[in-house]
């Protein structure tokens, strides 16, 4: 009975992976089941081996076709499956997957989680800057970025550094009007006024 229950639970988990397009992971589950159950009922063993062959056949067929892009819903289901066990790398992969399908709001939510956990890495800020450029015109970009960075609960100095890094990235990527709007926004900060005004004036002169 225990062997049957284990097989049913493994099949349920493997089918979840399979439905998400993770065929190799499904095969590994079934293979591990056979390796860890030397005395499994012959009929169950045959059924599991048949499932392995069927999945491998699906995998071979998929290799001959162009890769299918995951939808935002599918990416979300994979993300939700990690639960509280998601690592920093998992969240970054999820954010990048959302960016690839132009689900920029969803990507920003994942990047926000990383920054809120104190993972203040340049790659997260530049990715966020690209998302904001796609979501907002220059005249409307300052307020969303201000709210998004403040919501990370980082110290004010870190928040300003984040905003400046994102602005510099926009300028480097030739999103000049977005960058100019943000430079003018940062220009209102007393400690940044002189340097931001110089950057803004130089950028405005080039436009």
What would you say this structure looks like, in words?
The chain is mostly helical and about 210 residues long. About 75% of the residues lie in helices and about 0% in strands.
Short description:
This protein is 75% helix and 0% strand. It has 207 residues and is an all-alpha fold.
Search tags:
single chain, 207 residues, mainly alpha, 0% strand
Tell me how many strands there are.
0
**Sheet having the most strands:** none
Give the integer mean of the pLDDT values. 82
* Alpha-beta classification: mainly alpha
What fraction, in percent, of the residue positions are helical?
A: over 70%
Using only C-alpha atoms, the radius of gyration works out to 24 Å
Unreliably modeled segments: none
Taken in chain order, the helices and strands follow as HHHHHHHHHHH
* Silhouette: elongated
End-to-end separation? 75 Å
Q: Strand percentage, roughly?
A: under 5%
Count of runs of 4 or more consecutive helical residues: 11
Architecture blueprint of SSEs:
Layout: H1 2-19, H2 23-36, H3 42-63, H4 72-82, H5 88-100, H6 104-116, H7 122-135, H8 142-150, H9 156-172, H10 176-186, H11 193-206
């Amino acid at each position: 009975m225990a062997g049957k229950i284990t097989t049913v639970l493994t099949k349920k988990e493997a089918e979840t992976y399979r439905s998400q397009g993770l065929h190799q992971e499904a095969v590994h589950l079934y293979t591990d089941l056979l390796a860890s159950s030397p005395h499994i009922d012959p009929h169950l063993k045959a059924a599991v081996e048949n499932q392995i062959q069927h999945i491998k056949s699906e995998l071979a067929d998929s290799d001959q076709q162009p890769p299918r892009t995951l939808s935002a819903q599918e990416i979300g289901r994979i993300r939700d499956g990690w639960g509280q066990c998601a690592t920093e790398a998992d969240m970054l992969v999820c954010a990048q997957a959302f960016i690839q399908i132009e689900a920029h709001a969803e990507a920003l939510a994942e990047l926000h989680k990383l920054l809120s956990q104190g993972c203040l890495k340049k790659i997260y800020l530049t990715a966020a800057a690209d998302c904001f450029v796609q979501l907002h015109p220059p005249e409307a970009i300052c307020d969303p970025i201000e709210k998004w960075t403040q919501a990370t609960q980082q110290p004010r100095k870190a928040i300003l550094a984040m905003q400046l890094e994102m602005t510099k990235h926009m300028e480097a990527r030739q999103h000049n009007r977005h960058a100019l709007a943000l430079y003018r926004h940062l220009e209102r900060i007393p400690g940044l006024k002189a340097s931001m005004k110089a950057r803004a004036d130089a950028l405005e002169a080039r436009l």
